[in-house]
Protein 1
Amino acid sequence: MATRKSAVIDKDIFRQKLSRYTRQAYYLVPRIVTPSILDIGCGTGIPTIELAILSSGNITAADIDSAALKKLREKIKVLQLKRHIKPVKASLFSLRFRKESFDMIWSEGSISVIGFREGLKAWHRLIKPGGYLVVHDEIKEYKQKMNDISRLNYVLMEHFIISEHVWLHDYFRPLEVRIKELKAVYKNDSGMMKLLDHEACEIEVFRESPGDFASVFYIMQRK
């Protein structure tokens, strides 16, 4: 059932539209020649691929989801990025990398799993002195988070907000259109209709509280 679902709803298509913000954030970091980057919670690798292309560096792509990593490996093969990206199965709660081994840590949508402050504390040791941390996180408590950054031995260099309107037009509305198209195709298939209804729940949650879906990129430097 899960295989069938993934075959008809590939959310990477919709997430790809937000890659321009990954690029925007990357260009706010001072240039590093062939940087070593740890992408925490890489998923299927949409930001990972962007980082590899932008930086020509060495990306360690970490995630606990085996299926997501498998999909990332397939992309790496097709795009011939094997020498730039190394997928690693690892939990956010146990990142066993050497101290000060990365020029940059990148995290899009994963820090909420362990908490903003907890993530900044835990990841600090992995970044080289003067290196960078880029976090894309939900907008909730973002002013408090900006205050916390300096207290946790980072300098906030830049930040920018992705509004709920962007999320609506670039992600939720195209997803809704796709679900409607598939419902027309599978209207006599009760199993598929149930799966599509489940996918539509995310859209309903957005409609109930769209402001909660705005997000923030933080570009920080390790002290």
Note: The beta strands are 36-40, 58-63, 85-89, 102-108, 127-138, 154-162, 215-222.
Protein 2
Amino acid sequence: MERSRAHSIHRTRLGLVLCATLLVAQSARADLYTAEVAYEKGDFATAFKEFRALAELGQPLAQHNLAIMYARGEGTEASPPMAYAWAKISAENGMEGSRKIVEQLEPTLTPNSLQFARDIEREFNREALDKRLMPRILPGVDYSDRAPCRKDKMDMPTYPEDANASGVQGQVFVEFTIFPDGRARNPRVTLAVPPNIFEKVVRSSLLRSKFIPATQDGKAVSCTAVVLYTFKTQNDASDYKGLDRYVEKTRKQAEAGDAHSQMLYGLLLAGLPQLNKTYSEALPWFLKAAQAGVPMAQYEVGNSLLSGRGCQCEENKAADWLRKAAEQDQPDAQVTLAEYALRGTPDGDATRRAKVWLERAVKSGNADAKLYLAALLAATPIDEVRDPRRAIDLLERIFSDYNYDPTAFEIRAAASANFGDFRHAIEDQTKAVAKAKKLNWDLNSQNERLVRYQSHQSWHGDLLAF
């Protein structure tokens, strides 16, 4: 009988990314492409709207095309000063064709029109964009403020029996937090191909793995890590065949301006150990794809700015990029914005914002969002948001996929306690403590909650904070 195997590929940052050939099929649409298609079809209103949005993100081709549309009055009223301004900005960003537009328009503009155009330039030129959105990349580093976390003892997932029997192969890209105790928490699948096959065994194996935590000033601290797990049948020896050729082909396509290839090349640089690259070398490619409107790339840039991965940590810029991705219903960005809103001791407004983003991610069917929303509804201190019965309903829909995780039992226990069912709260919390003990977690918070439930007291707080 043919045997199957599951393995993971790690980089020194623990990151990987995903199978390149599958990513192309799965990556989100690029708005630059959408705008170009709309223009070719004569839908100038849509094209203008898309090009304008991307031009404001610093995408040179969008800026060039926007200048042309202003000059021709396509999708907007004709405006030589606006055409001139965007052509100047595009030329500054390397679009040679824009220089011809500048040369043609400049002699036709009055002094007042030139001044108006310069005001537009100052608002959207490279210097303004750097201050508003662009990450300050730190060459040769993975994190701006800490030594990165590393793998120690990785538990390898078991190949799911049904997938093995059917010959199904796939990849799972998972993001998680490594706490100072060297244990993973809150594994969140950001991409799985095919979906709903390998996610559970990946999450479970991560919780059983051991890591060397990140350090800051000699002290162990938390960090975010990513890992790609690949599942292939034993007789499939194609893992690395032609890898160098594939990387080179992707690089050329990325340099030619293809947004999906830019996203993919960034992932290859960030994730393939053979390439021996730091995250700061991948980030410029994520940025190019993000400027072209690829939601997954916008999430990567925002998350990098939020955590200081490869760049300075700048939360205001991070929030902008994450919102852009979230507004296109990128679920990881939506969950990350919710987590960001819930940091520390959130007030009612922050809690409601978090709930809105999680509800949107849940609506798209994201399983991890259901877990996060269940945790929020089960135990938030904000009375008008707390809804323990709905938390249990959400959790029951996905519980079979998370029953290896102490957190799932903790959520159900907190929800039960919050509507007075202390018998079930004690039962589930006891299971959570037992599972956490097997994983060598610090049990203080779990035991404190158990004592409260045994005393018939409910608990309010963040169940995903350890």
Note: The mean pLDDT is 87.
Protein 3
Amino acid sequence: MKAIIAGGGIGGLVTALCFIHQGWNVEVLEQAQEISEVGAGIQLSPNAMKVFEALGLASALEKVGFLPEAIEIRMGESGMRLIRTPLAEAAVERWGSPYLHIHRADFISVLQLALQECASESLKLGATLERYEHDDHEVRAFLANGEYSSGDVLIGADGIHSAVRSQMLGSDQPVFTGNVAWRCVVPVERLGRSAPDPVACAWMGRGKHAVTYLLRGGKLANLVAVVERDDWTVESWVETGSRAEALKDFAGWHPTILRLMEESDALFRWALFDRRPLAKWTDGRVAILGDAAHPMLPFMAQGAAMAIEDAWTVASRVTYSETVQKGLAEYRSLRFDRASSIQAASRANAQTFHQRELVGRIKTYGPIWLAGKIAPKIGLMRQDSVYGYNVVSAAANISR
């Protein structure tokens, strides 16, 4: 059995490894001439780490990542701490797996190396998918250079501008959220006393918020800073903006945030668009996953985790179901409600993070502050349904 996977990013590489784990041959079609990632961090929560434990990659990821001591919420201007919830040991004790911060380039390197070790010829670079055809016996993926590949299933892990989704559903109309995100990574040694603490910290503010955490054993600091504005709407991971503009967006904020911007070599920015849940994820022997199926705003740090859960589920279902088509239908059925609910929760968090009015700030942040004083672990309880989910067990429950 052979799986063709469109897209050689995180979702595509994890999907390939999940299919290989199930005994499939794979071919990964990536349109870029080389796989690279901009300097940015990613959060791998326990629900995502469950998959890498099953794949035997958890230790490799932990070696190049960073285990945060706690989760914190602070006010963006004053730095006042609302709540601090211990995380390093609690994650394993409560959810069964660690919570990891990792540089995207390091993450991709671990995935690529794992793929090379078990299927060295499976990654095809410079392979731009134009269209697909399928029948009862196979699916064919046609490339821009006139070549085509055939297999038993085609998985579109080709991101927010997915060619597979476009053929399956037609062009869509994403909605600009009115939010623009700034991203950068900075060596901690440059930051002095303004270096972020070794925690995953969300900083709340009027019409904006930021997230800071550490990478590479604590040697790098990562910043994601989101601001409400409507004068820049480019949806791209590689567009850069000026330092002066970023500092203006966060004028008056805590020195930790401003120092990160001041010391960064490059500030990337991208406009955040939203897409409502899609009614259709499959077409015969073809399916989409990750951002191609359910792109998420970054307000719960679950975009990559949902793609990883998708990857395990789709590989499991098509392996153990009577037919590929039935397996893909089961994959969509298993994943739709969970992905849609986390999409909605991510969307709602924008309002929580960006309270502008005094009354709203008191009503939102007051209970968080109170919980931090009397029951700091309540923050862990609120994440049980997300972080405590075990997709490996969920898929296995109907696999036999």
Note: The CA atoms of residues 174 and 275 lie 5 Å apart.
